[in-house]
Amino acid sequence: MRVVVAEDDVLLREGIASLLERSGLEVMGQVGDGAELLEVVRRTHPDVVVVDVRMPPTNTTEGLQAARAIREELPDTAILVLSAYADVEQAMELLASGRSIGYLLKSRITDVQEFLAALERVANGGSVIDPALVEELVTARRRDDPLAALSPREREVLAQMAEGQSNSGIARRLWISEGTVEKHVRAVLTKLNLPDTDDHHRRVLAVLTFLDAA
After folding, report:
1. Do residue 162 and residue 127 come from a single domain?
2. pTM check: above 0.85
3. How many CA atoms are closer than 13 Å to the CA of 132, on its beta-carbon side?
4. Chain-centre distance of CA 124, in angstroms?
5. Percentage of residues in the chain having pLDDT higher than 90
6. d(CA 178, CA 172)
7. pLDDT score at 47
8. Whether residues 159 and 116 fall in one domain
């Protein structure tokens, strides 16, 4: 496997390159900024590029921008992005670009076998997502879920509302009393923080919220 390493921290860059070479990989180049990375990749056509998100001159997203350019120009080149912290937005944008892509936190490099396995996976066309990022995505999804406050029974009632069932129809389907359905409906409308309008309109808004979250 032929690899180019892009990292502005000289010690870390040389450490990664040394690790890869000791593991039998061929390091085609070591660079410290995005412009140099593009130049080396265009010249050597490596199998995988290991690139830091933040590189000179602004130390913001130069590495990410270079990764996008490589993906457009040389789509068969696998890319493993390293970051000091989990940035969900950056990672999702990168992962959406297709196969042979990965996003790892720099702390993963200390687990040599895990790091090498990630490189091999992206080189073979797969994707790698750092476990910390997965946790961040799950937490964000849970935090943004408008239905998270509803109990399982309230979700069932809302699902029946979405099918157009009246309170009496919901009562028959769920084998509960109509009075109990009314209590659940009121709880749903309250927990979804819907505007205080007539109940019919609030039911419609509740259904729209349910469908949007589905």
Report:
1. no
2. no
3. 12
4. 20
5. 42
6. 8
7. 96
8. no
